[in-house]
Every structure is written in C-alpha cells, then in structure tokens.
Design goal:
Blueprint (H helix, E strand, L loop, with lengths): L27 E3 L11 H17 L2 E5 L5 H15 L3 H4 L11 E3 L3 E2 L2 E2 L3 E6 L4 E4 L9 E4 L10 H26 L17 E7 L11 E4 L5 E6 L5 E4 L6 E3 L7 E5 L1 H6 L9 E3 L7 E8 L6 E2 L17 E2 H10 L24
Helix pairs in contact: 1-4, 2-4
This protein binds N-oxalylglycine (OGA) and nickel (II) ion.
Length: 356
C-alpha cells in the first residue's frame, strides 16, 4: 500500500493500544454433541443451548470447536485466497466490484469515513442472489447479483462453493441453537432464509507500517443475522466487552470459528442478544487473512422483534424494517462518498416515550 495515506489514520480516541491487557476471552463452546451418533441425550443438548444463550447475552461473541466443518475444505479455500491476493493489484482489479455489481475485489473500503487497511474479495452464497435494484424507498425493482471469478487461481470457485455449503450447514445449526435458547422452537427462524442473501468475504490485511494509527477494519457491528469467521493464526480481532467497554483480543484457536450475533438477531430478540462492536488491529510484521460468512435473510424479510418475545413489560423496541433495502443502502448507496452515517438499526428504534 506504499506511503501511508491520511485516509487510513484513525482519530486519536479510536487508535488501538499496542499493549492490550490479556483478559478473560470470549466463551469457547464445544459443538461435538451435534455431530455425535447416536444423537446425544436431551440434557446435554439443554446444557449446550444454555451455553449458547449465555454467550449471546453476555458477549454477543463466542468461538466454536468440533463444529463438523471438514478442515480440508477450509484449508483449500485459505490457500486459494492467499494465491489470489498474492497477485499484482492490476490483476486483482480485473475482477473489481463496480456500481452495478457489489461483488468482487476492492481495496478502498471505509468504516465510519476512515479507510480500512485491507483488501477484500466479496462473494455471494446463492448464485445468483436477489436484492433490491436500488436503496431508494420508491423503487421496488429487484436485481440478481452474481459472483465474479478470477482467472487465477482456477480452483477458487470450487473451493468456495464446497466451503459455502459447510458454512450454510453450520449457520443453520447455530440458528437452531439460538432459537432454542430464546425459548422458541428450533426451526422458528428458518423460514426467513429460503432465498437468503448471505455473502462471504475473503479478507487480506497486509502488514502495516503504522499499526498504532490505522485499523484493518474500524469499529463496527455486523448488520446481518449471524457471522461465522475463520481467522488465521496471526490474531488482531478485538471485541468490545459488554461489562466495561474494554477492547478484548480474540486469541486465535486453531481450526475454531468465531461466531457473532448481528443486528438482525438483536432486533429479533428485542435486545436480549446485542450485536457487539468489534474491530481489527493490523501488524507491522505479519500479513493476516480471514474469511467471514455473513448469514443474511431473504431480501423481502421485514425485520422486527419476534412476537413471542414481546410482552406488556417488554414491548417491541424496534419498528419493522425491510432487510433488502437496509442491505442495498449499505452495499449500493453512495454514502461513502458523502460525509454521512450509514444506515443503522438504531434508526428504527422506538423511542421510550412513544412505546405503549
Ligand atoms: C468483518 C469483520 C473481522 C476479521 O469483516 O465484518 O469483522 O477478523 N472481520 O477479519
Ligand atoms: Ni465485522
């Protein structure tokens, strides 16, 4: 990335501390009972559901091990990703995203108007994926977006498609556990994902000469339902601890996945499970790779607190919003060029005084 452009420099209050105190980490949850044969007994399932519920409530983040995703599939895609990013910028820009199709390569993402120290390759999980044609409220048109495939490495497509199937399976298992943990039937949320708009990102964070001034990704919350992240062994992800607002490092656990609740689960659960801020520190010596899978519902889903969770004492905290428009506003609008805040769920929050 050459000389350091001012666009990468974080405001003083958002700069990462290089020495972070080691503290209690996010929960580590063993999913082995889901893959056991014969199926495990109901009491161990109940224990797992409680662990998931506590993790979602107390942290919004957890790691899973014995998740059932074959390691070869993950390694094949990690290798393909490294090969892709090792090419020249000119080569990578042949599959760059544009105004019409938000999928492909780009190296100019901004989070809260500061440029992120990273380059990415975005993919959609359903090919094609149907989303609104624009973020304009009056425009009901839809469009199909399709993946772009680079010439090199040729195995990227197959590696991704195989891996994405595994991510979908794991995501549905996690959704079931989350539903159960909210006291709902296991399949309560599955109907929102028939034609899901999930997407997938290959992230490359190059080594950075100013890791104390820049971030790989600035602080943000994920806007979808659930994120499942594979990170390499370098580390750099930090999660804002709910109890005291401290930034806590997520230490890499080999072969584990990091799972976090997105804004949609926050709304569905009426704030019982909050979507938590996180960010990525960069490193002056090592480059880092990560691969998040963002589970998103169908574009036509109206996101609102689940009616079973609403009572007189706990009235709905959000009014319904259309997921497709929310997504299109983030992905397709030109907010990045304007100095405005991107769309956020707090824009749909019902003010205390107007609640019943
Ligand atoms: C993201 C994200 C974390 C990471 O892409 O939304 O939070 O470790 N990534 O790459
Ligand atoms: Ni994120």
């Amino acid at each position: 990335m050459g000389e350091v452009d001012e666009a990468f420099i974080q405001a003083v209050e958002h700069r990462p501390k290089i020495a972070v105190t080691e503290a209690e980490g996010i929960p580590l949850i063993n999913l082995s009972i889901l893959n056991s044969n014969p199926p495990s007994n109901p009491s161990s399932l109940q224990t797992l559901v409680e662990e998931i519920g506590d993790a979602c409530h107390n942290w919004g983040f957890f790691q899973v091990i014995n998740h059932g995703v074959p390691l070869e599939r993950r390694e094949k895609l990690e290798l393909a990703s490294r090969k892709f990013f090792a090419q020249s910028t000119e080569e990578k820009r042949k599959v760059r995203r544009d105004e019409v199709n938000p999928l492909g390569y780009y190296d100019t993402e901004h989070t809260k108007n500061v440029r992120d120290w990273k380059e990415v390759f975005d993919l959609t999980v359903k090919n094609p994926t149907v989303i609104p044609a624009s973020h304009e409220a009056g425009d009901n048109g839809l469009k199909k977006i399709v993946n772009r495939w680079p010439e090199y490495p040729s195995e990227l497509r197959e590696a991704f498609e195989e891996y994405a199937k595994e991510m979908e399976k794991l995501a549905y298992k996690l959704l079931e556990l989350i539903s159960l943990s909210l006291g709902l039937p296991a399949n309560r949320l599955s109907g929102f994902f028939n034609d899901h708009t999930s997407f997938f990102r290959l992230n490359h964070y190059p080594a950075c000469p100013v890791p104390h001034l820049a971030l790989g990704v600035g602080r943000h919350k994920d806007g979808g339902a659930l994120t499942i992240l594979a990170q390499d062994d370098v580390g750099g992800l930090q999660v804002k601890r709910k109890t005291d607002g401290e930034w806590i490092r997520v230490k890499p656990t080999p072969h584990a996945y990091i799972v976090n609740v997105g804004d949609i689960i926050q709304v569905w659960s009426n704030d019982r499970y909050e979507s938590v801020e996180h960010r990525v520190m960069v490193n002056s010596e090592k480059e880092r790779f990560s691969m998040p899978f963002f589970l998103n519902p169908d574009h036509n889903v109206m996101v609102e607190p689940l009616e079973e969770l609403i009572t007189k004492q706990n009235p709905a905290k959000y009014r319904a919003y259309n997921w497709g428009k929310f997504f299109a506003t983030r992905k397709l609008s030109n907010f990045k060029k304007l100095d405005v805040e991107n769309i956020q769920i707090h824009h749909f929050r019902i003010k205390e005084e107007s609640s019943y």
